[in-house]
Amino acid sequence: MSGARASWIGRLEGAWARSDEVFATLSPAAFSLRPIALRHPLLFYLGHLPAFAYNQIVRGALDEPPLDAALDTLFERGIDPESASDAVSLASWPSVAEVIAYRDRVRELVRERVSSVLAKRDDVLCDKGRVLSLVIEHERMHHETLQYLFAQCPEGAVARASAPSPDVVGAGRAARAVDIAPGPVVLGARFDELDFGWDNEFGAETRSVERFWLDDLPQRNQDWLDYMGVYSMGAQASLAPASWVSRGGQWLVRTVSGPVAMDEAAGWPVQVSGAQARAFCAARGGRLATEAELHHAARARSDSDALADPALVDWARARPDPVGSAPESASAFGVEELIGNGWEWTSTEFAPRPGFEAWARTYPGYSSDFFDGQHDVVFGGAWPTDRVFLRRSFRNWYRRSYPYAFTSFRVAYDERATR
Q1: Which of 55, 129, 168, 387 reaches 20 to 30 Å from 181, CA-CA?
Q2: Which residues, 6 or more positions from 120, have their beta carbon under 8 angstroms from its beta carbon?
Q3: What is the pLDDT of residue 159?
Q4: CB-based contacts of 119: which residues, under 8 Å, 6+ apart?
Q5: What is the pLDDT of residues 208-240, one digit of tens each?
Q6: Are 170 and 46 in contact (CB under 8 A)?
Q7: Which 3 state secondary structure label does DSSP give 206?
Q8: For residue 419, is pLDDT > 50?
Q9: CA dihedral 215, 175, 383, 325 (to 10 degrees)
Q10: b vs e for 4-18, b when ≥16 Cβ sit within 10 Å of the residue's Cβ?
């Protein structure tokens, strides 16, 4: 086996091993659950990951016939509907055993085709193994997606967490606004700079950031509870995040391992939708920062576009830490946890960079399907975000009204705003 082929197979098998570990945390009955009405049942994702790999590598890049036309199509693509009524409802699904058998057949075929991919150097999809990276990163993205789906499951559906949960508890530290000096910031990358990048990462552009003030930490569950007011179990309950659950007149916070008491989770970054984050900022006399502003505020040094060290990513925990627990993550401006412990909403609509091109012919709608004015860029990363996504050019986004992902926020202020 050549060194290059062995390396790629090792990377594929590493992603598959993580997938198997994640699905192994589910009870057998949980695969039929649909914990978020806007998404497919959990069984879909067991089949989606291998179907995506086959459709991208074997059918797409190598132009071979279907493996199982029905399953290739059934599991081809997930959904991002505006409401639960728009979600696809399928009357019947194959059994878990059938899906696992399909998965194993796909994996074996993909292993066999790695050499064929690497031999097609005149094909942009295959050169530098790009389609292999596309499949590997897609699989690792879904590891995170599955964690917030699992967190919405009823108790008992998830037998155990996929990562350790050390007893890191406490109120955290309240945010304070710090001065962010103006300056230029480079967003994105040139295509020839990276061995692999998703289409929305290209091209490179320079933005000018004006002076502004930014909270040095994200908002906590306790901050949101204060925002809701003392009657939070009554009229203001509609403001409660989807990550909270009411029990016995008390709020609890959802985790992959089940709800925990608010006292334990009060210091964690609150998990809300972009619309909720915008409303909170307005109530504080501030706003959400733009994508460019957060990139600028996250500089490791004032003279470099390199980002500050991450705070909590790559499966180090099975839940967040109290904010302020990672002072080593501070940027050149003294802003902490911009990378890790929770994605952060920006006010920047997800849109193409100058010169955008959907370079992957097998996945032309990866980004362009969401250039619709309803999705916003989120910045940073969360505890289950794989380290591969910490490159400076990477972009993530969610529907502005979507409340389930590991998305928090901090408040930005214009220079003259009252703080």
Answers
A1: 387
A2: 61, 62, 126, 127
A3: 81
A4: 126
A5: 999 999 999 999 999 999 999 855 566 566 799
A6: no
A7: strand
A8: no
A9: 130
A10: eeeebbebbeebbeb
